[in-house]
Amino acid sequence: MSDSGLALSTRGLKKSYGSRLALDGLDLTVPTGVVYGFLGPNGAGKTTTMRVLTGLIHPDGGAIEMLGKPFTRRDRRRLFDVGALVESPAFYPYLSGRENLRALAASGAPVPTGRVDEVLELVGLRERGGDKVSRYSLGMKQRLGIAGALLNDPKLLLLDEPANGLDPAGIVAMRETLRHLASIGKTVFVSSHLLAEVQQMADVVGIIAAGRLVREGTMQELLAAEGVVRVKVEPGEVPAAVAALGRLVDPGHVSPSTAEPGWISVQITPERSAEVNRAIGEAGIWVSGLASGNDLEELFLTLTGAASAGDPDGTFASIDRSAGGDSTGTPS
Amino acid sequence: MRLFRSGLRKLTTRLATFLTFGLLAGLLVLIDLAVATTRGQGGNDNGGDPLLLITFPGAYDNILAFMLGLGGLFGVIYGAAIAGSEWTWGTFKTSVARGESRSRYLLSTFAAIALVLAIGLLITFLIGVVAAALSATIAGIGLDGIGDADTLTALPENFARGWVAITATAALGFAVATLARSQLAGIGVGIAFYFGETFAGIFLPDVVKYMPFHLANTAVGGGSDGFGAPPDPGALTADTALVLVTVWLVGSLVVAAVFSERAEITG
C-alpha cells in the first residue's frame, strides 16, 4: 500500500464556507489496516473533512495523501480504491436496491459481475434487494449505503456516521464487518458521534474540535492517559458530594452528569477509586454506585470543551452525547 | 458506455419518462378524437377548418407541429427533472465520491436523455398518426393522402430537426436545474422561460426569434415563425435556426458541465 504505512494523511487542511472556518489546519494520520474513529461534536468539521476526502469539495489549503499518493482535485481516480458513504445514503427511490447498486457500479471503478449480489449478501439485504428503495426503512437504506461503499472492494473505506438508523443487531453486524475488513488489511475511517460504538470498534481515534485535531492516538494510549471514576449518589446530595470530591482532586475535574441525575464523574486514575468512595463517605453520603475505568466520553468532553458548554438544565448540550453511549462508564 | 447504458436503464424505468410522453401522446389523441367527433364544428372564419388537423397528408405536419410546440415545454421540464433529481436525491454526489468525472457523468446522462427523447417522440408520432387516421375515419374523411410521397420523403428530415430542437430545450432545462441544483427550481425556471419567451415574442420579436423555443419552431417550420404558419419575411431560415438551436444545445451542456466541475457539492 503506502511506503509510509499510512492509508491517509492530511497536513494543514483548511476549508472555509464564507467567513466560517470549517477546517483550521487539520492534521490526520491514519495507519493502514486499522479502524480509525473520527470523533467530534456537531459542527466540528467531520462532514467537511469527509467531503474534502471524497473530492466533493476542494480545500482552501493543505495537503492530502491517500493510499500513499497525493490527492488533489486532478486525482479523482485515486477514489477508485476508496469506498465512501458521505452523510445520508443517496439512491434512486424508484429503483430496487439491486438496480441502485448496478447504477452505482456504472460510475467510478469497474465492478465485476456478481459483486452487487456479494455486497447485498454482506449487508443482509440479498432477499430484499429486489424491493424498491422507496420501501426501505432508514436502517435498510443505511445498509445499502454501506453496500455501495463496499462495491469496488476498496482499500480505504470512508464512512460518515454509518450506524445511523441501524438497529442494535445491525450495529453489531456493521461493527463485525468493519473489524473484519481491517483484519484483512483494509483501512476503515469512521466518522461518528456514537462514542461507545467507536470505543468498541476503533483501533485509532482522532478527535476534532473547531476544525482542528485535538487528540489522536491508539485507543489504548488515549484511555490510559485519561482515567475516570464515576459515582452515584442521591440526586439531592450531588452538590455536597461534588464539594467533598473537590477537596480530593481539582474541582474542575469533578463533573455531575446532566443526562443522568446522581452520577458524578471524577477525573482520577481508576486505582484511586477507593479514595473517591472514602471522600464521599467522610462527607456523610452513601455511594449507591461506583464504576471506575477509562471512558472515551469523558476524554471527548474534556478535549472538545463540551462539558463546560453543556446546558445546566441537562436538556441539551452543545455536543451530541451519544444515545448509545456507555452511561455507566467502562469498568477496567 | 457504462454510464450511458446505466442512464438509459434509469430513464426507461422512470415514471417521469412515461408521464412526459404519455401526456404528449394522450393530448394528441384527445385533440384528434375531439375534432373527429365534433366534425370540425369549431371552425370559424379566422381559424380555418379543424378537420385539416386529421386530414392527410397535412396531418403529418400538424402532428409534428403539435409535438414541437408542446414538446418544447415538456422537453425543458423533462431535462430539468432528470438533472435536478441527481442533485436532490444526492445520486450525483455518490458517483462523484466514487471518483467518476463530473462532466462525463452529466454528459452521459444527457446523451441517454437525448436517445430517450428520440424514441419517445417517434412513438408519440406514430401514436399521433394512428390517432389521426382513426379520427379521419370516424369523421368520414378519406385516407388518400396518407401515402403522399413528397410528405413522406420530407418526414425523416423534419422529424430529425424536431428532435434536435426538443433536445435543445431539454438541454436548457438540464442546465438550469444543474445550476440551481434542484429539480423544482429547474422545472419552475424552465416553464417560466417557455411562457416568458412566448409573451416577450409579442413585444420583442427581433430578439425572441433567437431564443430557444422560437428557434425550435423555425428550425422545422422552414422559414416561418412556426411550423405550418405562413412565411414571415423577417424570420430566420430553417437552416440558420437549426444551427442556432444547436448552439443553444451545446452551450447549455457546456454550461452544465463547467458548472458541475467547479461546484462544491454539499448537502
Which stretches of chain B are poorly predicted, pLDDT < 50 over at least 5 residues? Answer: none
Q: Evaluate the radius of gyration of chain B.
A: 19 Å
- Give the strand line-up of the largest sheet of chain A: 6-7-8-3-9-10
Q: What is the number of domains of chain B?
A: 1
Task: Please state the oligomeric state of the protein chains shown.
Answer: heterodimer
Measure the end-to-end span of chain A.
36 Å
Helix residue percentage of chain B: over 70%
Strand portion of chain B, in percent?
A: under 5%
What Rg of chain A is obtained from the alpha carbons, in whole angstroms? 22 Å
Derived structural class of chain B:
mainly alpha
User: What sequence of helices (H) and strands (E) makes up the elements of chain B?
Assistant: HHHHHHHHHH
Structure description:
Chain A starts with 5 loop residues before the first strand and ends in a 28-residue tail after the last helix. The C terminus of chain A is likely disordered. The radius of gyration of chain A is 22 Å and the shape is globular. Chain A has 332 residues and is α/β, with parallel strands linked by helices. In chain A, the strands form three sheets. Chain A has a six-stranded mixed beta sheet, sandwiched between helices. In chain A, strands 2-1-4-5 form a four-stranded antiparallel beta sheet, covered by helices on one side. Chain A contains ten helices and 14 strands. The mean pLDDT of chain B is 88. In chain B, helix 3 packs parallel to helix 6, helix 3 runs antiparallel to helix 9 and helix 6 packs antiparallel against helix 9. Helix content of chain B is 76%, strand content 0%. Chain B contains ten helices and no strands. The interface between A and B is medium-sized, with 34 and 27 residues.
